[in-house]
Amino acid sequence: MSAITKVAIAGAKGNLGDAVLEQLLKAGFQVTALTRQGSSHTFPSTVTVKPVDYTSQDSLVNSLQGQDAVVATLASEALDVQIPLIDASVKAGVKRFITSDFGSDTFNPKTSALPGFASKITVHNAAKKAAAESGLTWTAIINGPFLNWGVTVEFLAKSKSKEIDYPDGGDQKYSVSNLETVGKAVVGVLKNLEATKNRPVYIQDATISQKQLAGYLKKAVGADGWKENVISIAEGLQQGEEELKKPQPNGFFVFITSLRAAVWGEGYGGRFTKLDNDLFGIKQLTDAEVEEVVIKSVPK
Ligand SMILES: NC(=O)c1ccc[n+]([C@@H]2O[C@H](COP(=O)([O-])OP(=O)(O)OC[C@H]3O[C@@H](n4cnc5c(N)ncnc54)[C@H](OP(=O)(O)O)[C@@H]3O)[C@@H](O)[C@H]2O)c1
After folding, report:
1. Which of 95, 144, 180, 245 has the lowest CB atom count within 10 Å?
2. Quick check: CB of 39 below 6 Å from ligand 1?
3. Which fold has domain 6-144+178-202?
4. Where are the alpha helices (DSSP H) in 42-178?
């Protein structure tokens, strides 16, 4: 497979997209940002911006002509737009499609069966089918929760109100990655096409437990007055199933119950056993470095 020079990124101005765009530019790729018509983001002057209509194959295929790779960093609620994007990538002769995964190990059989990840599995199946029938190849990057972002937006713990969940006890180690590292992994995939062809790749900056995280956060905001909630993953999954039986289930609630199982549940692969860090030259962080990231990321 010849080297990648032109990369289109869909959803380049999101929580993750910014970090991926930065690393793509730093690595010297010629970058085109696909953005919805009507979105009003500002991009660096070196980026070619192409407004697209995700419901129009003509719009997508025209925008992808000449591109070697497509990176999808599309929002969790917009994962389905990858289906027409994959179809258009095939028609435009794109070589590699990186799916909008960037989280839990959805290639683990228990995790892939969770209702909250159904859209990601649908996209995997579309990418696999396209790869079987055309010259397109795919990669999914699996990186665990974003550590720095997860602390800043209080997704891993609420440091302002001093509240943290300990799913099934809180001692389990889980894989985490900073946004910048995920961006480096995207570059790593595009520079190692054969070794990353048609498979998930696994990266992590570190493993951490919720209790370890609590220890770092206590150093940052004070140790007094914390509410530490031991919660049951199995009960959460049960509540998720009950929610799905309602006429109008709350999809976000179901997703969170699935996510907790995928990150912390026994057998769901939240702590990666095989890593591609070496392939991409990504060095893991020491505990002291993880502590520094956590303390720096606490919201002001
Ligand atoms: N591991 C973790 O902790 C973690 C955390 C968050 C997200 N993620 C994953 O990272 C990936 C990116 O998520 P994100 O939070 O960075 O996304 P995001 O910021 O919510 O959105 C990214 C971009 O998606 C595009 N978009 C939004 N709604 C759309 C729609 N209805 N149709 C088409 N495009 C739409 C927008 O781009 P334009 O306005 O330019 O069109 C938006 O800027 C997802 O796969 C998500 O699951 C992982």
Report:
1. 245
2. yes
3. Rossmann fold (3.40.50)
4. 57-64, 82-92, 109-112, 118-133, 147-152
